[in-house]
Amino acid sequence: MSELFDEEPERPGPESPGRRARALVITGVVLVVGFFLLTAFASIYTDRLWYKEVGYSQVFSTMLWTRIGLFLVFGTVMAATVAVNMHLAYRYRPLFRPVGGDGSVDRYRDAVTPIRGWLLGGVALVVGIFAGTSAVGQWRSYMLWRNGETFGERDAYFNRDLGFYIFELPWWHFVVDFVLAATIVALIATAVVHYLFGGIRLQATHDRLSGAAQVQLSVLLGVFVMAKAVDYFLDRFDLVTEDHRIFTGMNFTAENAVLAARNILVGVALICAVLFFLNVWRRTWQLPSVGLALLVLSAILLGMIWPAIVQNFQVKPSEADKENPYIQANIDATREAYGLSDIQSETAYQGIPSGSTSKAQGNTVLRQLTTTPVVDPLQVRETFQQRQRIRAYYSVPAVLDVDRYTIDGQEVPLVLGVRELDQSGIQASDQNWSNLHTEYTHGEGLIAAYANRIDIDDQANGRIVWAEGIRGEGTEGGTDLTDAEKFESRVYYGEQSPSYSIVGKASAGGRDLELGLPSTGEGTDDERVTTTYDGKGGVPVGSTFNQLMYAIKFGEPNFLLSGRVNGNSKVLYNRTPLERVERAAPWLTVDGDPYPAVVNGRIQWIIDGYTTTDRYPNSQRESFDAMIDDSLQQETGLQTIPTDEINYMRSAVKATVDAYDGTVTLYQWDEDDPILKTWMKVFPGAVKPKDDISDELMEHLRYPEDLFKVQRYQLARYHVADAGEFYSGNDRWEVPEDPNATREVFQPPYRLFSTGVEDTDDWSLTSVFKPRGAQNTLTSYLQVNSDAKSDSFGKLRLLEMADENTPGPGQVANEMQGNDAVAQKLQQYRVQGATPPRFGNLLTLPVEGGLIYIQPVYAARSATSAFPILQYVIVKYGDGVGIDRNLPRALADALDVDLDANGDSEEDPPAEEDPPVGEEPPAEEDPDLSIEERIAAALRDADAAFQAAEEAQTDGDTVEWARQLELAQAAVDRAVRLANQRASE
């Protein structure tokens, strides 16, 4: 008995390792799922706050609920289809299984049976999530289908409104593809369940399928083939947008072979579907198998082999004749889709002035060139950067813009850029979170120079004349654009703005933290000018919850920990103009180059928005990126199509973004575009009517550059209106390569501002064409009116050259630079050790029946911090080439006539002699000196200049070296003239 009491009680065994592992796995899964859910919630919540801040809450809510609806509907349909079929397959499984089956199947069945409910739900959930996610990406197609407008035009082959192809057909394609996908997934899942539970017995010699399996699989196969019949029916309409070797659209083979084949395949597929449905009662696979084999055979014979036979044996022997009407349809549709149908063409333009030019004719030409820009935005960028950046943490864009302004009652062209914040210029030791996100928050002001003026005496500023800039060391700056009583110069929203900034101080009397810029720019880097943002833009982050959400969004705990995030703080993000417009109007394709304008005392970014599609019947489809590529292209705007290929484009919207508070405003521009009208129905109130555009803003609206590039790309082929000539391809053009580019790339279009014969200002966008291939001649000149206030705005004008040997840009550039006078002037920059000259934009303008070419020449010091200085302007008109310090004198040199300096902004030195910059009055003009004394003085001047040139060359200062050589040469010439004068006496 005592032994019983002395026995130790049994201790509980250790916890099973499997149980702990399962707990850890479950905990890990919960944490991971929770993290993703919290991140997704933070993203949606912060997006809602941002859209509310910019005033486009309806855009956000419409997109959100549409996406949720599509996800739920299509995800539920897919999940339900798979789950119901798997459940039916299990429910109607054979109750008794024959002995001697496959042992591996039995093992799988035994493993699956206890968890079959979880497994069914898991499979349905996964496929439902995938289906719902794919449907979310179709929200644009769905909204276009629901709200699509009509074009009022019908295609020539199916007699359907063009809106059917653009708004309805893409959505129906998605629905049919979804049905096909859902049927295939359900078919696979059903077959697996039947196989596991005995409904399908592959080892049996007969009755391999149970009755339930045969019924279920027959119905699913019938649905699949019926959906395929609908797919064949819809594919018929795709023939008008299919790409072929020569063109896009319906062709002879498509209409006479492929279309007939798809009509037949629709019938065969329907018959096959009926046979599968009948198999529910017949319980034999013989007829459905024959029908399915017939469908596959028909698809191969009719869909592939027969069109190939027609193409190779009927079309190719006489392709030009067979394809003629289809090519003509492609030409007409392409010109309409890209806005080329109303182009004004002028054939047999001479391009070369006839006869010699008189002084009166020369003055007429000069008057038309009064406002022509000779300052190259690309070359003067470094001048802007070094003379007007002021602080190392400011910068200007890589490519400056050209715009026009009315100054002192006269419209003038300006080269301009915004002085933006560049945080890469902040010292590395100062790059901490507080500085980057609460102190260095914004740019400051606009920088502008006159594009048509040269100050030949101001070498310190590259000989450009400032219209807007901060006064500092060596520059007077200017306030020609911002002399209003109140001008908001701070730039919180720009092309180079940081990802986010936190602004706002804790109280009205609190300390300003954000760094600003002194009004004169003459302060030292240590001088602190601070400010605080008080605009309406920005999302409040004063509450702890909002701080938590943005800490998750940006992955930055300082939103919660930093004392600089207070109750009045706002966070500014999505700050580039393109970002803001793309998010406010996600259905637009936006131009890649926003440009700034001063409107009512504020800097406004102006962005062109396009409606595009790749579904316009018979129009040529091309890559958007390829069409807009040139030597200045930096960024491509957002496109709202699956690929970057388009075959329709309209300038539909003008958008503005306020550089201070980020306000986004969309204005309707094309009032007839059906695609824009459709999106305005989807998002009512998001786009304001065209009449709301103010006069001040209208002055700065211009013809969209990317649209012009697309149009010139298409016009290179589609200037040909005759189908036979188009097929021959012997009159194809191309945009010339940029003669100044380091890579083979198109010459960019140029914005020109000139004065017409009747003193009317012409603000235009221009480009030229040359024959396709290596030939470097000029075939035509393309110009579009870019004045939004003009009745002729958007009118394309094409001048086709009468002479096939009219020189092209590359040939003209070679002729200009090879001219003896030009070569002599530029020789000083081409000696050993000198920095070669830089050639600016080669501008081409039609003037007085001919073409005039203008190209500025810049020279830079060899030092890396030096900026190029405008040294000369080269002009070619007819056979004459001239070079001088400014445009009027270069033109006079080219025409070999004396011209008045009408319209020239700078004081014009006497045309008889071109005194180099900085030359002192010649000594021979002093009447108190003898001729020998004047010769000696001239030689002393020459010697001093030569010594100064040597010092400049040693220092690597090419510009100063060239200037001193000019002074020395002028002094030597003066001594020679005086010596000749003495000899003649």
From TrEMBL:
Pfam families referenced in this protein's UniProt entry, alphabetically: UPF0182
Residue intervals passing through the bilayer: 21-44, 64-88, 117-137, 171-197, 209-230, 259-278, 290-309
Keywords linked to the UniProt accession: Cell membrane, Membrane, Transmembrane, Transmembrane helix
Region (Disordered): 900-930
Oxidoreductase in keyword set: no
InterPro entries: UPF0182
Protein name: UPF0182 family protein
The organism of origin for this protein: Nocardioides vastitatis
Lineage of origin: Bacteria, Bacillati, Actinomycetota, Actinomycetes, Propionibacteriales
